[in-house]
Amino acid sequence: MKRVIILGCTGSIGSTALEAIRTKHLDLTVVGLSANSNAPQLVALAREFSSEAICLTGMAIESVSGLRTYSNFTGLEQMLHSLDADIVLNAISGFDGLRASLAALSCGFDLALANKESVVCAGSYLFEVAKEHNASIIPVDSEHSALAELLKGHDRKQVQSLIITASGGPFRTLDASRFAGITVEQALAHPTWNMGKKISIDSATLANKALEVIEASHLFGFDADHIEVVIHPQSIVHSMIRTFDGAVYAQLGNPDMTLPIINALCEGATSLVRPLDFTSLSLSFEQPDFKRFPLLGLAFEILRRKGSSALAFNAADEVAVHAFMQQRISYPKLIEVVLRTLDQRWDEEVSSFSQILALDAKARQIASSLL
Fold first, then answer.
1. Quick one: which residues bind NADPH (predicted)?
2. Which residue from 62, 67, 70, 190 lies 20 to 30 Å from 328 (Cα-Cα)?
3. In the predicted model, is pLDDT for residue 194 greater than 80?
4. What digits encode the pLDDT tens for the residues 231-263?
5. Nearest Cα to Cα of residue 295 among 322, 274, 314, 281
6. Annotation-wise, does 115 bind a ligand?
7. Model pTM?
8. Spatial CB neighbours of 358, under 8 Å, sequence gap ≥ 6
9. 368 annotated as belonging to a binding site for a ligand
10. CA distance linking residue 54 with residue 71, whole number of Å
11. 257: which residues sit within 8 A by CB, 6+ positions away?
């Protein structure tokens, strides 16, 4: 029985993982859980899955009979060090998830990573920590999970480029002249995936796809000139690889995160998702519009610039998205804040967590001044 810790257990990824463990009779036991602020749900889940420990990262939690209880991110680190586990699923959203990733890796746990900000902000430093503690990083994003599976069947020297698909978001066909009138509710209405608010906004601006491009480069060792993005509104093709002989190989499936989550946690699971029905299937593909969605194009520039540009991109985006969701700025202003923050020089290479925190704070201060 594989022992798993699930961080961010009440969010979209965490809930999907627990539902699969609950219903699919998987060879997994949940020994630890964390949530941001929903203490009653956290305790209820711990009781249901007979967990040993819980942590509420966003606030203090009172002691609970029969459970080791921890509070805040310091407590999360303590909980990880206290548990005997095989793998950690990090489904904490945003920059906060980086600290959890580093803590899990430092314990020697394999890391099933749904927190793309960990790779984007820490870059090669994250992989150095993993190597130091003999731990593996396994991608959970549907696109990167698909790429990992496709690359298993091909020698790296055979693969010319990675092809990442994007739904295009809710504004794929909306004229740019109407962007100023976009509301928060409209930006949250993703056409194919049910996700959290931050990632939904990022999918509307294609910033999420930009983060995925940066993540793919670090995960699989492909530079900006060998990563492609194609718009695929149906979200059936999750990713593809292009080989030097001219062939393209793809992974297809219904939009369901159960498969990439569980494949990251264990091997040999069966009947995880509904089989794809080809009888009524129609697929379409388009080139991305970098003019209307400049944050996607910025990702490729960031990969070429290197340094800490990716970290600054993430920080500025979090600041701008938060302001947009509070209706303090418009959708076009959100884009502008991120672009103008990246006009600064971000040449410093990341080599420690304290340095990451300092650079993140600097980028947030600059982005806030541009609101």
1. 10-13, 38, 115, 117, 196
2. 190
3. no
4. 999 999 999 999 999 999 999 998 889 999 999
5. 314
6. yes
7. 0.94
8. none
9. no
10. 9
11. 12, 13, 16, 140, 142
10 labeled binding residue: yes
Would the annotation count 254 as a binding residue? no
Q: Is 221 annotated for ligand binding? A: no
DSSP string, 1-22: -EEEEEESTTSHHHHHHHHHHH
User: Do 235 and 281 touch, CB atoms closer than 8 A?
Assistant: no
| 116 is known to lie in a ligand binding site | yes
Name the residue type at position 100: A
Report the range of poorest mean pLDDT among 89-93, 148-152, 267-271: 267-271
**CA atoms of 338 and 319, how far apart (whole Å):** 9
Confirm or deny that 141 is annotated as ligand binding.
yes
- Torsion region of 52: left, alpha or beta (phi above 0 gives left; psi -120 to 50 gives alpha): alpha
Is 308 annotated for ligand binding? no
Amino acid at 190: H
Tell me: is residue 198 an annotated ligand-binding position. no
* Contact yes or no for 229/296 (Cβ under 8 A): yes
First to last CA, the chain: 50
